[in-house]
């Protein structure tokens, strides 16, 4: 059977690296789309051999990077300009950049576009970087570009991983006070790879909520970590309640990035950031992870616990 040829946009990022790894595990021929100045070392170490240079804000470069001559079977888009973690990142990447990428995909005749969207993004008009993902879902439909949009909730892990240092000291740092959907990045990467090369064409043109078997709050997560690590875990807000209520709103008036974060926290804490159809994930990916098994996998991956070969 011929290997599926998959292009990963945002491959040098935290999530993109993991998606490339999962695609390789599935036997796909992976091509990473990178900027000319991007560090390719991690991708090379994991076995990625093919690279194309492209910038989502440069339509001409995308035409070359996505040329029909490559014969790509799918593209996975995990770039996130909002985070501004690498030089050249900008919130505009999440709007104009993604539109450019969709246009180039359509022009190249690539039959499958996997979008990393956001849970309930269609209801998040007050949170620009959430709602922009929904607008790209709409754009894919308008352009009649076949797609699968994966809509994850909050990430258990981030880059840099702000949990790891605190959790070893018995503290769970939290940004949110409400109940919300959540996913471990390694799990999302696995589903993105499957969406690119395993799911049937009949599953195209749909949005899929991605998360665990139930939403969580700070107490749920603390209890799971305590159970896995077998020690007490104390919840500690990253932003103290007083600052969240009185100081952050003032700063947000003068800083768009802070305002986006503040609006995100407010919106999530209303309780809307929860999967409405978790069973679709189970149907498509044969998996709906529990809270504790996901926390256990995180702790194993971070070396906080050791695998029990007798369990």
Task: Report what the structure shows.
With 311 residues, this protein is an alpha/beta fold. The protein has a domain at 5-156 and 182-211 and 275-289: NAD(P)-binding Rossmann-like Domain (Rossmann fold, 3-Layer(aba) Sandwich). It has twelve helices and eleven strands. Helix 2 (41-46) links the parallel strand 2 and strand 3 (50-53).
Rounded mean pLDDT score: 92
Apparent shape = globular
Give me the side-by-side strand order of the main sheet. Answer: 3-2-1-4-5-6-10
What class, by secondary structure content?
Answer: alpha/beta
The CATH architecture designation of the domain at 5-156 and 182-211 and 275-289 is 3-Layer(aba) Sandwich
**CATH C-level label of the domain at 5-156 and 182-211 and 275-289:** Alpha Beta
Percent helix range: 40-55%
Tally of separate helices: 12
β-strand number: 11
Question: Uncertain regions: pLDDT < 50 for 5+ in a row?
Answer: none
H/E element sequence:
EHEHEHEHEHEEHEEHEHEHHHH
Taking the alpha carbons of the first and last residues, their distance comes to 37 Å
Query: Which value, in Å, is the CA radius of gyration?
Result: 19 Å
Q: Looking at CATH, which topology of the domain at 5-156 and 182-211 and 275-289 would you report?
A: Rossmann fold
Question: CATH homologous superfamily name of the domain at 5-156 and 182-211 and 275-289?
Answer: NAD(P)-binding Rossmann-like Domain
Strand content: 5-15%
User: What composes the largest sheet?
Assistant: 7 strands, parallel
